[in-house]
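Hello again,

I reread your note about wanting to compare the complex against the isolated chains. To keep things tidy I'm splitting this into two emails, and this first one only covers the full assembly. Below are the input lines as submitted, including protein chains and any nucleic acid or small-molecule components. They are followed by the predicted structure of everything together. The single-chain runs will come separately.
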Amino acid sequence: MTDTLRRINDVRRQAAGSVGDRWRALPRWQRAIGFLAFVVFLYYLPYLGIPGLIWLRTDTTPQGNDWAGVLFICAVYVLIALGLNIVVGLAGLLDLGYVGFFAIGAYSVALFGSTQSPVVEALQNRFGLSPEWAVAWAICLPIAIMFTMISGVILGWPTLRLRGDYLAIVTLGFGEIIRIVARNSTFTGGPQGIAAIPGPQGAPSADNTIFGLVDAKPWYWLALSVILVVVIGVRRLENSRVGRAWLAIREDEDAAAVMGVPGFKFKLWAFAMGAAIGGLSGFLFASRNAFIDPTQFNVNLSILFVAMVVVGGAGNMAGVALGAFLLAYLPERFREFSDYRTLAFGVALVLIMLLRPQGLIPSRRRARELHDRAEEVPANV
Amino acid sequence: MNFAELIGHLGQHTVDGLSKGAIYALVALGYTLVYGVLKLINFAHSEVFMIGTFAVVGAWTLMGATDNPPFGTMILLLVGGLIAGVAASGATAVAVERIAYRRLRRMNAPPLIFLITAIGVSLVLSETFGLWQGRLVKGMPNVLPRKVVFTIGNTTIDNRQLLTVVAALVMMFALDQFINRTRYGRGVRAVAQSPDTAALMGVNKDRVIVLIFLLGGLLAGAAALLYNVRYGNTRFNVGFLLGLKAFTAAVLGGIGNLRGALLGGLLLGVVEVYAATLTSSAWEDVAAFVVLVVVLLFRPTGLLGESLGRARA
Amino acid sequence: MRRKFVRALGGVALAVAVAAAAGCQESGGGGDTGGGGAQNCSGKIALFGALTGGDAGLVLPSVNGVELAIEQFKAANQGCNVELTKFDTQGAPDQATPIANRVAADQGYVAVIGGAFSGESKATMPIYEAAGLVMISQSATATELTAAGNKSFHRVVGNDGTQSAAAVAYIKNVLKAAKPFVIDDGTTYGQGIIAGVKKGLGTVAGEDRVQKDQQNFDATISKIRQAGADVVAYGGYTNEAAPLLKQMRAAGITAKFLGFDGLYDPNFPTGAGAAGEGAVVTCPCLPASEAGGTFSADYQKKYGQPPGNYGAEGFDAATIILEGLKAGKVTRADMLAWVDSYDKQGVSKAIKFDQTGDVDKSKVVIWAYEIKDGEWKPQQKLTIS
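Full-complex prediction:
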């Protein structure tokens, strides 16, 4: 009985495994064309009208959501997953408070770019500027990245020396602190949040022709472009000295230290980079929605982010992107069951972790790691 | 910052904090036991507590509880509630271990996978109750009416606060004795120290693990009864925030250290009440986490250090 | 050689498939228009609010009111094809925004009823304004919503400014309280209304802020006791108010408890239990017995229970739009102009909007309700002094 099962499993593994192997065996130019075709398809997605695939769109039912809007959310979540992948997947750190960086990025553009924010109003009064003045949208981007990186370093400095599980609870606390401070302080607008957050064309108004309030397609394309840039950047990082240092630290920190890799410094780098990408996605999110409030940045979102990365396949960019897309898209597609949304999410988490812990599209290294660990287990357990 | 209010009524606020923290401590014991042996953050423990509260309410409804019952009925209700809560919580904890964690242990999964699974189980349990019992606040009869027992200066101590703190101390003491003096306790300490060596010495690792989950569940069930008596309300997501605080308390005291869990819980309760008095209740969570970070900065293993494996629990 | 041939064939087939697919592109997506029938009085109405979740109890009665109005209209006007689409936001602003995008992009929608809560209204107001859609809210009371100069937002209820003024008058004149204690729950709604109350009262004996999902209120109760308060005003929702009140009474605090429309919810008496007796709330909504016309009786017949909070307001909001449709205002611009110039008696009050979208202040009615024997009973009509 077990023999037949094992044989079936071997056949399955061969069939599935060979897809990835065949892809990698193709010559470089063919892979490039394939990837390019895929990217073109992604840009085309808001217009999706191919007869067999219309059911993918979320606006086929009356209650369904705006398709381009859903795609934008998926793109933002994919960006977050890429950032968290650096922290969790590449450096192996347990971060349960990633929503904090997301919030800081969003609040950066809100506090400095919106004419209604208390910070901008204080600046206007101080320097005698006109009531319509606010920091330009493009300048808010480096501000957002700067703030998130600084907060990443501030969070990491005392906590990265701690053991993995302590790090989890402390990062969770950090996420909550950010939310509570945003909610309770006046300079962040309090629980009312901040409206009138600008986009690339300036403050939200009906005159914004491209990046307007109604049509989400240009926003989606903007987010998609940012994702591509980030993917290229992270890929280069992965294959550089920094990426290899992260790999060494994840595998065995003491051995890495013996070989001259300063664990603390690189972990801090991972935190900062991950934070910056999280802040970038918060920046885009706030710009599109034109309104944020503290309730949007809660701990459930943090858990969702970690789930996206782990379920997708920690350490593998394609995997985490798929995980993010699914976890953003599926609740929208099946809006009729919104009451069961969290239950389905929990069940999916448990099932995937029990049956396929390496994730949907695993990083080969990770899958190997888990496989090796499973074989190390002594017999009496 | 309202220092005058805090200093003026320091005793009262300390008593309030201690009784709030005693419930944290009982739940923290469950977290610390499991972590000390398995190095696993059992996120589902908060739902074990929540299920205990609902079981107690269910038992009270079955027994026809009303407000302010006569003394004999009250004792009956408390005992009945305790049995129901303890049974439900214990059963849930053991079931979670059997269904979710055992398989992961067989696969020798890394801590991240355990964590995600625990979170998933926690969501499944709380959502199931949310869908079944509704997402609204659930009231219950006032079984143990408040009566002031002691008055020291301008500090009043009422019967519920006394009950909560005394119960927590007694249970901690009992658990302590169990871990230190009994054979089963020796097994727990052995597995915490070194699972493979313990197995070589003849300790059944699986049974020990079921035992610690069961113990954690029993304590959570008792905490559930005390919580219901004290606050009179429960909700499908009551476990989430409480579990988070309890785990923070366990880390504060030294995860894996039973006395640390008690100390951490009591300390956290007091810190929260002080912070709420100084500013407002909206800042008490921030205060809790800040205290945690500060303590961990100076003492990375928590206040009393980790030591389930050592002879002194 | 053969492998290369197979690969080339595959590539050609793929290219052909893509071209065919691109050619078959349907111009789909983005819904149909709501059928302009022979009598030009048809249209689609969107409604958004918390239809599920813990706060749904505050929203569903008004949704019932809307549906009752539409049903009656359709019965009286057979040729008019009016469609109502309900969107569930669970009260969360970030769920309301994509819905607003959807509705705004679909030209079939001529009007929007919502949001039920202030946060989601604030988030979606700019989107609806940009799309030229008129918004009529049945229960979003935050004062700042009409202060932003938004041309789309209207509401058929009094705002929190008038509600807090009425509450202050109640505290001073009816309760004759000397030491009021105010608590808010840190949300937009709670904070806003308590800020209004604090301003109206001048000095308070003490204040505190709790947070969502908080269960232990020891620190707050201590503060109440130290302040020697004789009335506690709470701005927020049932989820926190019911445990707070229960713990307050269990701790022996006898101060009167005053809430606002967020607590006028059937779940509050259930959650607070015996501690709820005597609790009072203010609400800019009418009791069922005072509603005009046959509304209460019709509602009772259709739903088997008396209209809950904002039921009459929901009915009125829908009636405004339906009458506009009947008068042939089937485009967004026409409907917006119609609502702006509307001046008629509704079942809850006389409705005329001022420039900012609020109903005329003198027409606003605020009632106080009290819990007696575990149920809400109307107590008295409040005047804003």
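For quick reference: Chain C touches chain A through 44 residues (CB under 8 Å).

B.
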